[in-house]
Amino acid sequence: MAAIVAVENVGKTYATVKGDEVVALQDISLAIQKDETVAIVGPSGCGKSTLLRLIAGVERPTHGKIERGTRDGRFIVGYVFQDSSLMRWRTVYDNIKLPLEVTKKQNYEKIDQLIEMIGMKGFEKAYPIELSGGMQRRVSIARAFVHEPSIVLMDEPFTGVDELTKEALQHELGTMIRNLGATAMLVTHDIEEAVFLSNRIFVMSRRPGKIVEEVPVNLPADRDPSMRSDLAFFDAAKKVREKLLAMHAMSVELEAGSPRG
Amino acid sequence: MARAARKRGRSLPGLAGYGLPIASFILGIIFWELYVRVFKVPAFLFPPPSAIVQVYFTGRIDWVGQTLVTLNEAIFGLVIGVAVGFVIALVITLSSVLNKILMPYIVGLQVLPKVAIAPILYIILGFSDTSRILLIVILTFFPIVINTSTGLTDVDRNLVHLLKSLGASDTTVFYKVRLPNSLPYLFDGLKIGVSGALVGAIVAEFVSSSKGLGFLILNSQYTFNTVAAFGAFGILTVLGLLLYTGVILLGRQLMPWYRRN
After folding, report:
1. Helices (H), chain B
2. Burial B185-220 (b: 16+ CB within 10 A, else e)
3. Is residue A146 within 8 angstroms of chain B, CB to CB?
4. Cis before residue A208, ω within 30 degrees of 0?
5. What whole-number distance in Å separates Cα of residue A16 and Cα of residue A34?
6. Interatomic CA distance for residues B43 and A259, integer angstroms
């Protein structure tokens, strides 16, 4: 087992417009092994998305370092965003093609394969505006896998999707990750989504974001929706929830106890 | 019963969509005609619609020729205005230094009522087509600059992150994201520019010309030929509508992926 990404004592500090410093992330260490899916769960504004951007290399950490293991001698990420973030001027086919163009890969047959996998055959020439929200998410997921990335980074991929569609999409995504033998990192505030999709869950604290707990998910690799009622599912969800609640209670106490003005 | 009710429900917005404005227009014309006849308003003060229609067929005025002169100037000026506006938008979005250097001139030119400089343009550039076109360019380029530069800057940040994470250069981000993103904004600017182009053409002809609809209107004033001026107004209204509709149709043709709301 080789680590695809190893994050070591990473911190990220931003300067605000006023000149103050905001510590977004503090002393984060975690390793993601090949072929596993890890989830990061934490309250809004805890720096989850920042961590993804650091791993993607879009931003640089203020402290610590990030080691990126390579597949074919090259580290490439796939990215799934909160809102599908499709190019509205491109068709379904051309949206999925984008990462291949940028990385100059030629395996365009992969596009058709993925369109088939997301059940959108016949929609190749449709524009995003002609698709439902669920379909747009499917396209953005296909786009994240098309160039066979070293790791797929997912930033709250199903926010704002209705419950039933969300469960269907989560199942499809899980199946896709397994079938393609992909490594993935999921950032979410949805505990059940984290449990359903991942092998390990890291719980993060409110700003400054720190990892406060690691919860293993003891479910078989081959997930299906019926496992949502397994004991192991509830067990993992409970552990994550308790940790989040404990932190929430603490922050409420702190706010209540702090002097005004 | 239910079907009939639904049918009525559907025909009502149809009537409000096209029928009502057409009916309103026709009623307005009838009222105008009756008013002039009943109160015996002299035609040189306020000509009735019937007289305006007749003026197109007297053969004393070369309506087609005069219209083409004005239309030519407007379109020529608009095209140059768009080109100039687009280049300036590129320059100020690509270089923040040039942005700061150029901004006072662009804003200064914009807040100045531009028709005020029309008489002086002829002193500087002489009574030529160049000065007429220049006035139209000055009137049309600003909305293009503002809209296009907004479109070039106001992009989905996730898309930029996505491309950057795949190793794309700023140039690639520019032509794959920024440029296509600016197209609908450019067309919004163009819609404003169309009316500016007609204003520019008319004012230019007021100030210095012996042809075109603007000259015709000014000439009608000297000769108390009010009905001819109203004839010109009618043509200008139709021209404005045609140009505006043309821009919308061109936009739909070039951007099948774009629909407002």
Report:
1. 2-14, 20-38, 49-55, 63-94, 96-111, 118-125, 129-153, 157-165, 170-173, 179-207, 213-222, 226-254
2. bbbbbbebbbbbbbbbbbbbbbbbbeebbbbbbbeb
3. no
4. yes
5. 37
6. 81
Distance CA B254, CA B73 (A): 25
d(CA A218, CA A82): 27
Instruction: Give the H/E segment covering residue A68.
Output: strand A63-68
pLDDT at B15 over 60: no
Q: Given an 8 Å threshold on Cβ–Cβ distance, is B257 in contact with A79?
A: no
Task: List chain B residues with CB under 8 Å of A129.
Answer: 257-259
At A100-158, the pLDDT tens digits run: 999 998 899 999 999 999 999 999 999 999 999 899 999 999 999 999 999 999 999 99
DSSP-derived secondary structure for B218-235:
HHHHHTT-HHHHHHHHHH
Q: What is the mean pLDDT of residues B224-253?
A: 93
Q: What are phi and psi of A72, to 5 degrees?
A: 55, 35
Q: Which of A213, A182, A190 is nearest to A200 (CA)?
A: A213
Whether residue B7 is predicted with pLDDT greater than 90 in this model: the reply is no
- Name the residue among A39, A48, A50, A38 with its Cα closest to residue A4: A38
Instruction: Choose the closest CB to A79 out of B165, B167, B183.
Output: B165
Tell me the domains of chain A and their CATH numbers.
35-46+71-257 (3.40.50.300)
- Measured distance CA(A121)–CA(A114) in Å, rounded: 9
Q: How many CB atoms lie within 10 A of CB B62?
A: 12
Q: How confident is the model at residue B9 (pLDDT cuts 50, 70, 90)?
A: very low
All residues of chain A having their beta carbon less than 8 Å from the beta carbon of residue B168 are 102
CATH number for the domain whose boundaries are B57-254 = 1.10.3720.10
Please check whether residue A103 touches B, CB under 8 A. yes
| ipTM value | 0.86
CB contact under 8 A, B165 and A81: no
Cβ contact (<8 Å) for B183 and A147?
A: no
- Examine the pLDDT at B211 and tell me if it is beyond 50: yes
Residue spans of the domains in chain B: they are 2-40, 57-254
pLDDT digits (tens, 9 = 90+) for A206-232: 878 889 889 999 998 888 888 998 999
In percent, the amount of chain A with pLDDT more than 70 equals: 94
Give the per-residue pLDDT at A72.
Answer: 61
Q: What pTM did the predictor assign?
A: 0.84
